[in-house]
């Protein structure tokens, strides 16, 4: 009996002691066999007395309180000699190997409810697994890379949000703005760890596009904005003066300029948000500043292929260099240089015209103006919540750099704030368009256009908390004026 009690104490410290308990000669049974039932999930009543405590015959027994407390005959009686419940274990370090408990070699491996023969391979989310022979037993070994979609994280987010179905995005507010009558282009709609003290204000979902991908793949190929240099961060911000002191509680550029804001694109698995966000903001501002007379959908592919000086294409780029390129050389419309999501050689010479590039001509009076590429003025930085809001309401969407945490990939709806539990994982930088703002239940938010397609988030958009620099989204916000041939009067004065 002393030997059995000693073994039970070891069990409380190590999952590996489970085999020793099963083979211990002094632990007389049966246990689960005497109960004559095996319970799915967690059923605390599915238990049998053992040595002054309880052992369990439910599927949760390998995971209760982080320490296995299955009855000695649980696996032989309930799983036919195998371990049938390969539970998800979040990776702490990429490259770690998770070893499910061993089972007799003759039975192969049972993993996630299925039996595998020795040497047979499978995948568990983003990880590769193989049933191998070790020390006379069969074990399923899986890599432990952190996956883009974390099912445990989804459960935590949605539980903290109240386990409610994802609420639809709020209706577009009825607002007006400068140039609201402008038109031309159609608009499309379409773990364990720390917990926050307040419920999440957003819901998460499992996207098929992201399932089976590692976090490393997501950060490398679904973002693509390189960390800004110190020189860029020291850029002197522009401040608005003489603007109306009162800003509306909500504003949406999609309503103010309904045919000027470009639709959400999908960058695919090409880390080039630097190119897509720059081209989209430039497109929007051409349409807005020309009162709808110039409505190009400018080519992000032109930037990807041709803006290659100290840029890295689908492996990331700098925003200041992208804006410099649009100022010096200009861009062609997407119609004659469509997005492919992969790098190619540049098809537009530096001194090209719309005519020589075989692109649609511009709306202008002179021949020279008709054939000029679409160029932007000098890029400038905006500092502070109110300056960003005034810039949007006056001249259209702006470009924001943000830090992306793992949980953003699972965002479905609501006002996003990253979960503290994901702060241990690696992050990356991304650039998006800010198109408006609002407030819900006393919580202020920005409305942002992503570049992951309309299938993601709120028809390709997301709301993120405003005024707190959530994910550094207010740290580096950029804009530029469009060189249009049809200008509107501006009643704003700006100073540098």
From TrEMBL:
<dbReference type="InterPro" id="IPR000668">
    <property type="entry name" value="Peptidase_C1A_C"/>
</dbReference>
<keyword id="KW-0732">Signal</keyword>
<dbReference type="InterPro" id="IPR038765">
    <property type="entry name" value="Papain-like_cys_pep_sf"/>
</dbReference>
<dbReference type="InterPro" id="IPR013128">
    <property type="entry name" value="Peptidase_C1A"/>
</dbReference>
<dbReference type="GO" id="GO:0008234">
    <property type="term" value="F:cysteine-type peptidase activity"/>
</dbReference>
<comment type="similarity">
    <text>Belongs to the peptidase C1 family.</text>
</comment>
<feature type="region of interest" description="Disordered">
    <location>
        <begin position="161"/>
        <end position="198"/>
    </location>
</feature>
<dbReference type="InterPro" id="IPR025660">
    <property type="entry name" value="Pept_his_AS"/>
</dbReference>
<feature type="domain" description="SMB">
    <location>
        <begin position="34"/>
        <end position="82"/>
    </location>
</feature>
<protein>
    <submittedName>
        <fullName>Tubulointerstitial nephritis antigen-like</fullName>
    </submittedName>
</protein>
<dbReference type="InterPro" id="IPR001212">
    <property type="entry name" value="Somatomedin_B_dom"/>
</dbReference>
<feature type="compositionally biased region" description="Basic residues">
    <location>
        <begin position="185"/>
        <end position="198"/>
    </location>
</feature>
<dbReference type="GO" id="GO:0006508">
    <property type="term" value="P:proteolysis"/>
</dbReference>
<dbReference type="Pfam" id="PF00112">
    <property type="entry name" value="Peptidase_C1"/>
</dbReference>
<keyword id="KW-1015">Disulfide bond</keyword>
<feature type="signal peptide">
    <location>
        <begin position="1"/>
        <end position="17"/>
    </location>
</feature>
<dbReference type="InterPro" id="IPR025661">
    <property type="entry name" value="Pept_asp_AS"/>
</dbReference>
């Amino acid at each position: 009996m002393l030997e059995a009690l000693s073994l039970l104490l070891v069990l409380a410290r190590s999952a590996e002691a489970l085999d020793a308990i099963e083979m211990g000669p002094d632990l007389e049974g049966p246990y689960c066999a005497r109960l004559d039932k095996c319970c799915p999930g967690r059923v605390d009543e599915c238990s049998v007395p053992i040595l002054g405590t309880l052992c369990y015959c439910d599927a949760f027994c390998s995971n209760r309180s982080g320490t296995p407390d299955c009855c000695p005959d649980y696996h032989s009686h309930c799983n036919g000699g195998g371990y049938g419940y390969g539970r998800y274990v979040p990776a702490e370090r990429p490259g770690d190997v998770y070893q499910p408990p061993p089972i007799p070699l003759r039975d192969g491996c049972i993993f996630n409810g299925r039996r595998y023969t020795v040497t047979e391979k499978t995948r568990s989310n983003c990880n590769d697994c193989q049933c191998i022979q070790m020390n006379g037993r069969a074990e399923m070994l899986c890599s432990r890379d952190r996956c883009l979609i974390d099912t445990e994280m989804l459960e935590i987010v949605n539980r903290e949000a109240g386990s409610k179905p994802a609420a639809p995005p709020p209706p577009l507010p009825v607002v007006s703005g400068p140039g609201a009558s402008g038109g031309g282009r159609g608009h499309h709609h379409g773990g364990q760890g720390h917990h926050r003290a307040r419920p999440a204000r957003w819901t998460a979902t499992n996207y098929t596009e992201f399932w089976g991908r590692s976090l490393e793949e997501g950060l490398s190929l679904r973002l693509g904005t390189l960390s800004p240099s110190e020189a860029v961060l020291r850029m002197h911000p522009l401040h608005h003066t003489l603007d109306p002191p009162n800003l509306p509680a909500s504003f949406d550029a999609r309503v103010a300029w309904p045919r000027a804001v470009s639709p959400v694109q999908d960058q695919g698995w090409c880390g080039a948000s630097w190119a897509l966000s720059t081209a989209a903001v430039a497109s929007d501002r051409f349409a807005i500043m020309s009162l709808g007379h110039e409505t190009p959908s400018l080519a992000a592919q032109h930037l990807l292929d041709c803006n290659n000086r100290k840029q890295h294409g689908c492996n990331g780029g700098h925003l200041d260099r992208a804006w410099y390129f649009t100022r010096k050389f200009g861009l062609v419309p997407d119609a004659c240089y469509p997005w492919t999501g992969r790098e190619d050689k540049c098809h537009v010479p530096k001194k090209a015209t719309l005519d020589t590039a075989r692109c649609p001509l511009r709306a202008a009076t002179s021949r020279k103006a008709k054939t000029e590429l679409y160029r932007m003025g000098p890029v400038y930085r905006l500092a502070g919540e109110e300056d960003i809001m005034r810039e949007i309401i006056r001249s259209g969407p702006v470009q924001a750099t943000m830090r992306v945490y793992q949980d953003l990939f699972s965002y479905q709806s609501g006002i996003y704030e990253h979960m503290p539990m994901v702060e241990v994982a690696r992050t990356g930088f991304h650039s998006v368009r800010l198109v408006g703002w609002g407030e819900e239940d006393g919580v202020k938010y920005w409305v942002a256009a992503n570049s992951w397609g309309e299938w993601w988030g709120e028809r390709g958009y997301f709301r993120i908390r405003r005024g707190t620099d959530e994910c550094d989204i207010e740290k580096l916000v950029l804009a530029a004026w469009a060189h249009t041939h049809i200008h509107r009067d501006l009643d704003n004065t700006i100073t540098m």
